[in-house]
Amino acid sequence: MTSGSLLRWSRLLQVAAAVVIALSAVLVLAPGIGGAIFNLVYFRQTGYPVPFPPEADAYIRFSNGVLGAVMTGWMIAVIAIARGPFVEGRPWAWMTVAGSVAGWFLIDTAFSVMLGAWGNVALNTAMVLMFAVPLLATRRHFRGR
User: Fold this and answer.
1) What is the DSSP letter of 116?
2) What is the C-alpha to C-alpha distance for residues 13 and 24, in angstroms, rounded to an integer?
3) Which of 30, 124, 126, 24 is nearest to 75 (CA)?
4) Which end of the chain has fewer CB atoms at under 10 Å, N or C?
5) 144 lies in a domain?
6) Which domain does 50 fall in, by range?
7) For the chain, percent helix, then strand, then coil, each to nearest 5?
8) What is the mean pLDDT of the chain?
């Protein structure tokens, strides 16, 4: 694999991470919209299924904001790795991105299955596919080093 093709796959990883950052930013900067999206994922409607007291609503908004911040921080690290060590062909870069995405996917998706949050399982599957395509396409390059 040439450094040019690694660069192209790196750019796809960066685009995937940027999509996650954009969605995460909604949770932080537009919590009403972010909450409506999560309600749609979890409850299949944009509002809560039952009225929540203001304290519960505030806690949910806080939790969603923290989630958005953590996801953003993780994706900033993925972009930094994709731009440098990944393009340089360093095996630890591939393992770090692949391992963190796989770890997130397995834990989050298993938890979602346990809770019956099938909308989140679908969202996770779409997200993991954005990362899986460039990671699987470059796997052989990094294994040979």
Assistant:
1) T
2) 16
3) 24
4) C
5) no
6) 3-139
7) 85, 0, 15
8) 93
